[in-house]
Amino acid sequence: MSTTVNSNAGASASASTSTRGSDGRVFSYYPGCSQMAMNRAYDVSTRSVAARLGLELVELEDWNCCGATAYVAIREEQAFVLSARNLALAEQAGRPLVTACSGCFVVLNKANKYMAEDPELRSDITRALAAGSMRYRGTVAVRHFLDVVVNDVGEETVRAQVTRPLTGLKVAAYHGCQFSRPFGERADPEFPDTMDRLVNWLGGETVPFALKAKCCGGLMMTTQPDVGRALTGKILKAAKEAGADCVITCCPLCQFNLEGFQRRVGAAVGCDCALPVLYFTQLMGHAFGLDARALALGDSLTPVAELLHREAVHS
Amino acid sequence: MAVASLDLREVFLQKLYSIPNGRKVNECIQCGTCSASCPTSHAMDYSPREIIAALRAGMLDRVLRSNTVWLCSSCYSCSVRCPAGIPFTDVMYELKRLGVKHRIGDKGAPNTVMAREFVHLVDRRGRNHEPALIRQYFLHTNPLRALRQFPLALRLWWRGRMPLRGHTIKGAAGLRRMMAAIEENGSK
Ligand code: SF4
Ligand code: SF4
Q1: What pLDDT score was predicted for residue B6?
Q2: What is the per-residue pLDDT across A67-107, written as a single tens digit (0 to 9) for each?
Q3: Pick from B67, B101, B135: which residue ends a domain?
Q4: Residue in chain A lying closest to B128 (CA)
């Protein structure tokens, strides 16, 4: 069990969340803005593996942007309105909310908790929602798709789908900084092992990777390139030094930073940082025997298809 | 608008106290765990620990005028490790908003431009549209630097990762009404 309750983060266990109206297999699916554009491969591969695992993802009707880390840095309560509208839509649909984006997950989950804990905030948000003829009673559970696959679907079902085991493949499981934070309800906030367990079920192995939850720099790759490159560089360098054949991610921003700037990042940290980077959903889908199109492997900026082909030949 | 340093502290604390666990800021023991855990503190003029020291000394204006707060990437390393349970990431968010609201700090700093353009897009469409965000960002900062990104943009476009059209949600008008309502009645 990797479930850790982290009291330091200030989370209270009193959040009134439940999975009412669901048999645990049907979710309202929140793709997130990035999966509509630069990181659509994550959306495509998530839907493909979900279908294999018997998870029904019903796209949340008319969802809006969660606000990410930028909106709340300018306006506080408005940022909560963005989350609350999505939660209200999910409540209406009567299903728990699942997203594969770690950024969206943190924002929606945190807003859900803060609204449950802070009556003043809740009543402000309730009035705002009412102005758009919506309401939220606080009954929706927010989940990360990775957490659902590993902790709900579980080992037996995942293993049963594997037709191309990842024998001999060494993977750096980069969870990123958002997936298990700030509350650490379902994975350790310092050393999450959710993807390590998954890779193991797929027949591969993960390398020891101390930077698995270190920040990639997020938007700083664009706004403060020197800082962004140093952070991303450390991660790629550590993965290489650990002997990994590839890095897997569970966040679109991590994925983009790690795959999109390898030459400049390598120059910044003085090391060859070329390494295939792919979503955990793509790696899982490959092990399930899904084809390149179902996993949008052609979207990759690193030689992912070549890596998996080589892998398939070896096994 | 000039706000005296000490007033700034009062304004800040009042805001911070309204956040869950915000009052814990008073329990900081200056251990420096946050600074040591922070992936970007090496580039900050004031490290996370020093920010709390500056708050106590009534010197928040100096922090806001420095490069510090917008170097926070919201990674929550500080928050999950702080032995006093201080939600330090929220402290950083509050400082960002304080600077924006009272126009203290570098208005043209790249991270601020990015955040403002993002808010702009989301307010209008209800969704972010990455190609538009990046275009607006470079237009408002350094258009020449955009040229260096061109090869990458081309590779993305070639793979269909740069759709030209964004999406506007059906509920955009309703969302605007909600935003107007909280602008008017919000208690925070
Ligand atoms: S980790 Fe917490 S207690 Fe230690 S200096 Fe930072 S804010 Fe203060
Ligand atoms: S949340 Fe911000 S201040 Fe805290 S460790 Fe991360 S970057 Fe540093």
Answers
A1: 63
A2: 998 889 888 999 999 999 999 999 999 999 999 999 999 99
A3: B101
A4: A33
- My answer on whether B122 and B175 are in the same domain is yes
Q: Is A42 helix (H, G, I), strand (E, B) or coil?
A: helix
Give the whole-angstrom CA distance, residue B34 versus residue B42: 12
What is the fold, at CATH topology level, of the domain defined by A5-145?
Glutathione S-transferase Yfyf (Class Pi); Chain A, domain 2 (1.20.1050)
Taking the domain A158-314, which CATH number applies? 3.40.50.11810
Residues A11-36 have pLDDT tens digits of 333 333 433 334 569 999 999 998 88
Q: What is the pTM of this model?
A: 0.91
Distance in Å from the first CA to the final CA of chain A: 30
User: Does A218 have pLDDT greater than 60?
Assistant: yes
Q: Of chain B residues 91-120, which have a CB less than 8 A from chain A?
A: 93-94, 96-97, 100, 110-111, 113-116, 118-119
Q: What are phi and psi of A247, to 5 degrees?
A: -115, 140
ipTM of the shown complex: 0.90
Q: Identify the residues whose C-beta falls under 6 Å from ligand 2.
A: B 37-40, 48, 72-78, 88-89, 92
Alpha carbon of B24 to ligand 1 centroid (Å): 10
**Which amino acid is it at A264?**
R
Yes or no: say if A307 and A160 are a contact pair by the CB < 8 Å rule. Answer: no
CA–CA min distance A157, chain B (Å): 32
